[in-house]
Amino acid sequence: MTTENDARAWLRANDHDDVADRIDAILAKWRARGSGQRRNWWDVLAGNEAGKPKKVEGVTFPVLAAARRRKGWPECETEVGVGKIAPPPTANRWGARKMKPKSPPTARRRGTARASGTVSAHNGRDHNGGQTSTRVPPPMLTVQNFAQLESIVLPSTDLVVMVGPQATGKSLVLELLKLAIDRNRIVRVLKQHGFKWDKPEDFAALYLGGGFEKSWTGETQLRFGNEDLRLDEVAGSRSYKGEDAVFYIPAHRTLAIAEGWPRPFTQYQPDTPYVARRFSEELLTSLNQGLVGKGKIFPHDRRLKDAFRKLIDEAVYHGATLKLDVSGMRKQFVLEYEKEATLPFMAWTAGQREFTPLLLGLYHLLPPGGAPKRREVQWAIIEEPEMGLHPKAIVAVMAVVLDLLARGYKVALSTHSPTVLEVIWGMSRLRGVNDGPARLCKIMGLPGDKKVLKTASDALQRTYGVVHVQHGSNGRVISKDISHLNPGAADQSEWEWGGLIGFSAKVNEMVANARARR
Which tens digit of pLDDT belongs to each residue from 150-161? Predict the structure, then answer.
């Protein structure tokens, strides 16, 4: 059965006879001309990725939800229908082409875009010149049988957000993502600081922290793009010079400045996870090399756009100046309130203590002098950006995340905050809308000036994925893609946004039922 017959049969079986009639009329016109022209009607019915309807022979076709779900595209405002299951795509008569193999590590260390490890989708044309459907790239990262992780898949998108309960291994997955990309640089850093390992298991403990020596077993599978990684190969990787391709801001970032100033790599216990030690060392190195110049750290006019600084000030610092105090025996961060009071680190609010190392990490990614991004850094991984923060401050952090995306970084987040997913949901619904950037600015509390609108517009063009990790029936952790964040989905994992809004829905239901009985 041909593609067009598949589409027409499905349309008539699902109350879209008018659309099927339009296709029949166009096919009849082509036959009358003696033309053998064909179209992939599922592609036509999906519209373009932004949701704009397509025309064939001057006839505008509606954007069908089922056709978009078939392609793996998110919902859009122009779609109609309820996304009933459509026939899955089949290979064309020529067969599927093989994807190009992943570039070797030598290409990544030169700071090229290949360091991100993503595989571009191929937009081809069929044998009659029609546009074929976009080929979905393979998962970016697949983890199987590692510690408590049974099967985890992260999609190849510009923004990846992981949600799920505590102890489901979100941090482990993100650490493995960094390991897959930066393994050669990780080996170099460990060796530079005098660490040695005789067995691959010792390397796993040095990188992931104490207790993970036996987590990577013979049954473990770690796949990054098209490349399978083995522990012995990773532990034996050659050392590469150059800046890390992944800048990792861990959840335990307050450890980095627990005494008011970052600590060197070797001042941490060997069983401390590598990403925590590395983050502290990178902050220390950056500060010593003039990350914030002398004195004032925030507000700093060379690191953030005015609009983003204002959001952060209103949500976190409330007019205080974050400064570097060098008057005593050692350097330390202090907050100065209009010269009336100067507070040391431990006198700050919990939110200010949590936010400041995050801010310094973001500064590291925002070079001064007009450059959009650090040349070699391709990824920013931020664990739980909401830690210790009020929702207003979480929105300010997410505004900076949008700026990172607009600058060309790929971003991976783990979160327990519905506010983070609300931003993602809003972005997905505004993508392709004419005034989408302006509306996104209003959501984030940003002004609609030209520079900020450009940032919002660029961020809306990026792709995203949301992954829910949860314990399966056997107690092991599995993942599910809930990127559509559809409140009307049949899947509880999706409509509850990975459990982040399930309790709110339960409260609403109970209260509504109680009021209805009165």
Answer: 999 999 999 999
CATH 3.40.50 placement within the chain: 143-508
CATH number of 143-508: 3.40.50
Q: In one letter, which amino acid is 94? A: W
Please provide residue 454's backbone torsions phi and psi, each rounded to the nearest 5 degrees: -65, -40
Closest CA to 87 of 22, 149, 7: 7
Instruction: Please write the tens of the pLDDT for every residue from 322-377.
Output: 988 877 677 889 999 987 789 988 899 999 999 999 999 999 999 877 788 998 99
Asked if residue 500 lies in contact with residue 482, where contact means CB atoms within 8 angstroms, the answer is no
Helices (H), 152-230: 170-192, 200-208
CA angle 450, 116, 142 (to 5 degrees): 125
Kind plus residue range of the DSSP H or E element containing 429:
helix 418-430
CA nearest to 57, candidates 32, 23, 26, 17? 26
- Phi and psi, residue 309, nearest 5°: -60, -40
Q: Which of 277, 269, 286, 287 is nearest to 253 (CA)?
A: 277
Residue 47, SS3? coil
CA dihedral 425, 428, 429, 430 (to 10 degrees): 120
pTM above 0.85, yes or no: no
User: Could you give the 3-state DSSP secondary structure of residue 295?
Assistant: coil
SS (HEC) of 140-169: CEEEEEECCEEEEEECCCCEEEEECCCCCC
| Calculated CA dihedral for residues 107, 117, 427, 402, nearest 10 degrees | -50
Find residue 478's DSSP bridge partners: 151, 470
Does the N-terminal peptide bond of residue 105 adopt cis geometry, omega within 30 degrees of 0?
A: no
